[in-house]
């Protein structure tokens, strides 16, 4: 007779299960599948939404800093209606491409089970808000800004049009009354003083300005403040808000061009306005919208950097600027920028 061969039984735990199976049970009991990497604990570092929002907002500001130079150069050879139509047509087309890509990716990648959507379905009120924000905030801002460029010296109108963060700071100080917004209001007053100094000095050195240009630049600033505060208060994505506003503005600018008998002969200046449409108009607003949405509008003080950067670009191009008083006004705006950002950073750290 041959020897009996004993089969080794797997070592069992106190529960009577093999140790490998016991490990699986312990993992499933804690809600972890085998092979799934462990989730970071509560002490692990998480991405800061404020930093991500600031990166997007600064990207939009970088595009906006080139807007005045490209737009004023195109207005030297093109009619206002054509300038507006080219920028809104190219910008809306670029946003439409982005919307198509986003929709295609969302259809190919269905949501996983148990996942919650990042945005709720927009209501009728959200769509009404989106129409107002897109038409006035997006289309109105760019339209009146270029009317200001056409009927007033570009340096003055550019400074006034980019004074919108001060309007936003005043609105936040009125609606949200606390120490940080009160301090921001003081710095906003300093910024208003600096903008007024630069505007008055430039106006004194130039007699080519028209009241229509200055009023249009001021309306552009108000509409931009409205856009900044309103784009994060609707469930409609920012790109769709801008597509709505861009479509309305494109139609209105086409009417202006046809009514004024504009010359449609293509020139190299068309490329400048196509860049404005794709860059500052579409990409700039889209990046700024994402930054404002992620920060719930708290990063609006970053907009104070826009008039400084755009003015520096104009000066490097050889555009004239006033003397020492204008430099003092620029210093006031810089002080306002740093002051509001410091106050906003301290208030954010105190809420953590």
UniProtKB/TrEMBL annotation:
SUPFAM superfamilies, sorted: Multidrug resistance efflux transporter EmrE
Ranges for region Disordered: 1-51
Sequence ranges assigned to domain EamA in this UniProt record: 53-199
Keyword Transmembrane tagged: yes
Membrane-related topology note: Multi-pass membrane protein
Main location, first listed in the record: membrane
GO CC terms, sorted: membrane
UniProt-listed InterPro entries: AA-Vitamin_Transporters, EamA_dom, EmrE-like
Segments passing through the bilayer: 55-76, 82-102, 129-147, 159-176, 183-205, 211-229, 241-262, 268-287, 299-316, 322-343
Signal peptide segment: none
Biased composition (Low complexity): 31-51
Family: Belongs to the EamA transporter family.
Full protein name: EamA family transporter
UniProt organism field: Streptomyces taklimakanensis
Lineage: Bacteria, Bacillati, Actinomycetota, Actinomycetes, Kitasatosporales
């Amino acid at each position: 007779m041959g020897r009996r061969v004993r089969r080794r039984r797997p070592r069992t735990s106190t529960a009577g299960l093999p140790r490998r199976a016991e490990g699986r049970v312990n993992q499933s009991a804690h809600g972890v599948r085998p092979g799934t990497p462990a989730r970071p604990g509560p002490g692990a570092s998480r991405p800061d939404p404020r930093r991500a929002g600031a990166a997007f907002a600064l990207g939009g500001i970088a595009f906006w800093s080139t807007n005045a130079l490209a737009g004023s150069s195109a207005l030297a050879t093109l009619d206002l209606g054509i300038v507006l139509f080219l920028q809104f047509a190219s910008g809306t087309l670029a946003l439409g491409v982005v919307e198509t890509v986003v929709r295609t990716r969302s259809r190919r990648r269905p949501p996983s089970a148990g996942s919650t959507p990042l945005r709720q379905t927009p209501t009728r009120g959200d769509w009404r808000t989106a129409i107002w924000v897109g038409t006035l905030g997006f289309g109105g801002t760019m339209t009146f800004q270029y009317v200001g460029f056409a009927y007033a010296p570009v340096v003055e109108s550019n400074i006034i049009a980019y004074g919108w963060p001060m309007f936003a700071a005043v609105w936040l100080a009125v609606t949200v009354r606390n120490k940080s917004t009160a301090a921001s209001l003081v710095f906003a007053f300093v910024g208003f003083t600096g903008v007024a100094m630069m505007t008055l000095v430039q106006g004194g050195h130039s007699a080519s300005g028209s009241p229509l240009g200055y009023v249009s630049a001021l309306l552009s600033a108000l509409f931009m403040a409205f856009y900044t505060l309103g784009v994060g208060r609707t469930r409609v994505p920012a790109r769709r808000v801008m597509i709505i506003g861009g479509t309305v503005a494109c139609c209105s600018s086409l009417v202006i061009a046809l009514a004024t008998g504009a010359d449609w002969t293509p020139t190299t200046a068309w490329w400048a306005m196509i860049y404005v449409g794709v860059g500052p108009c579409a990409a700039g607003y889209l990046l700024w919208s994402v930054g404002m949405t992620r920060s719930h509008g708290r990063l609006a003080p970053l907009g104070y950097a826009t008039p400084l950067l755009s003015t520096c670009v104009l000066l490097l191009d050889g555009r004239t600027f006033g003397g020492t008083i204008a430099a003092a006004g620029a210093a006031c705006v810089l002080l306002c920028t740093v002051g509001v950002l410091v106050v906003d950073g301290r208030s954010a750290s105190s809420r953590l």
